[in-house]
Every structure is written in structure tokens, then in C-alpha cells.
Specification:
This protein has 90 residues and is mostly helical. The protein is built from three helices and no strands. It starts with 11 loop residues before the first helix and ends in a 19-residue tail after the last helix.
């Protein structure tokens, strides 16, 4: 169920950015702001998880960056194992 709200912004550049993004992506302003709210909710959930798991220092900088990139929509990197060389029967 959608809830209707009214929002005022003190930063006009945020509104301009959202309008341009909506136009580029063929979406409504409501959809853009809904996506922004959902993105923030996911980030806050990840921060709570990291705090619970020992804090962000428990992760290597590379792992922390991969997690952040994935949260922001980057495709997940898949590690591929090295293939062993196959020896032919003689």
C-alpha cells in the first residue's frame, strides 16, 4: 500500500538531481525518492550488522568496499577457482 506524503527540501540541487534522474530513467519522482529511502534503509541495516559482527574493522578494506559496492547496485564479483591441468592417459 502506498502512503502519500509531502516533502520540502532546502537544497534545490537535490530536487533538480531527482527530476533529471526520473526523466532519464522514465520514472516518477515518487519512485526515485522511494528508491532513495530503500537504499538508505539497506545501508543502515548493513551498518547494524557490521556493528553486531564486530564492527567494520573486522572486514578487510577490500571486502568492505565490495560489500558497499554491492549495496549500491554493483554486480557481485564471482570468484572463479583455478582449473587444474588435465593429464591425458598414455
Amino acid at each position: 500500500m502506498a502512503a502519500k506524503i509531502s516533502i520540502s527540501f532546502t537544497d534545490a540541487t537535490l530536487v533538480t538531481w531527482a527530476q533529471e534522474k526520473a526523466e532519464r530513467e522514465g520514472k516518477t519522482l515518487s519512485a526515485i525518492f522511494s528508491e532513495m529511502a530503500e537504499h538508505q534503509r539497506r545501508r543502515e541495516a548493513m551498518e547494524r550488522y557490521l556493528d553486531w559482527a564486530g564492527g567494520p574493522t573486522a572486514l578487510t578494506p577490500e571486502t568492505r568496499e565490495r560489500v558497499r559496492a554491492e549495496l549500491e547496485g554493483a554486480p557481485r564479483r564471482v570468484k572463479r577457482g583455478r582449473r587444474g591441468t588435465r593429464k591425458s592417459a598414455r
